[in-house]
Amino acid sequence: MLVAGVFAGGINTVVGSGTLVTFPVLLAVGYPPVVANVSNTVGLVPGSISGAIGYREELAGQRERVMRLGTASLLGGLTGAVLLLTLPESAFEAIVPVLIALALVLVVLQPRLSRMVAERRTRARPHGGPLLWTGIYGTGVYGGYFGAAQGIILLALMGIAMPDEDLQRLNALKNVLAAIVNGVAAVIFIFVADVAWLPAVLLAVGAAAGGQLGAKIGKRLSPALLRGVIVVVGVAAIVQLVA
Fold first, then answer.
1. CB 84 within 8 A of CB 195
2. What confidence score (pLDDT) does residue 176 get?
3. What is the dihedral of CA 101, 107, 108, 112, to 10 degrees?
C-alpha cells in the first residue's frame, strides 16, 4: 500500500489516474469495493495537496481562477460523495471508461480545438467562462464518486477553454482542483462512511512523498511530451477498467 501510494501520488501530480493503481490494490487485499473506494479517496488527499504545493510557482497569478473554479470543484466533490453513499456502485462504474476515452479525445484534439475557440472568441475569458465552470463541476461529481482520471478530464477541459494558457500552469491548477474534490469527499467519508484506516494512512504517507516526486518530474516535461504521457496513462486506464 505504501509503494502504491508513492506511485499514485506521483502520477496524479503529473497527469492523473493514480486511483487505477491504488483501488485495485485495496480490492486485492480483501476490502469491499465501496470501502476500498472510500479509503482510497481519504488516503490520496495528502498526495493531492503535496502535488499542488510542488507546483506552487506555476500557481502564481492564478488566485482568482482558483477561487472561481475551486467553487465548482467543491460543489462537485460534495455531490459525488453523496452519490457514492446513496447510489449503486455499478451506476457510475459503467460509464467510467467512456468518460476517460472522451477525455483522451479532447486531449489529442486540444491544440486544434483551442485554435478554433481562439478564432471565434470575441473577448478573452481568463477563467474559461460558464461552460468551463459547469464542466469542472461535472468532473468534481465524477471525482467525488470514483475519481479515476479526473485529472485527465480537468486538463482536457481547461486546455480547450483557456487555449492561451501554458499547459504546466493548467497542470498546477488541476492539482489544486483535484485536491479540493478529494478533500471535501474525504471529509464526508470520514464522518459517515466505513474507512479502512491502516491502508488509508499508508496511502497518505506514500502519496505525500509521491506528490513531491511527481512535481519535480512533471515540471520538466514539454507540453507535447506531457500530452503524450496523458494519452498513454489514459489508454492504460481504459484497458484496466474494461479488463
1. no
2. 94
3. 130
Q: 17: domain range?
A: 2-242
- Give the torsion through C-alpha atoms of 207, 208, 209, 213, to 10 deg: 90
By CB neighbour count within 10 A (0-12 exposed, 13-18 middle, 19+ buried), where does 109 fall?
Answer: middle
Q: What is the pLDDT averaged over residues 33-55?
A: 90
Residue in this structure with the C-alpha cell 500500500, named with its chain if needed: 1
Q: For the whole prediction, is pTM greater than 0.90? A: no
Query: In total, how many domains does the chain have?
Result: 1
DSSP state of 127: T
176-212 burial, b at 16+ Cβ within 10 Å, e below that, comes to bbbbbbbbbbbebbeeebebbeebbbbbbbbbbbbbb
Mean residue pLDDT of the chain comes to 84
Mean pLDDT for the stretch of residues 27-41: 88
Rg over alpha carbons for the chain, rounded to the nearest Å, is: 17
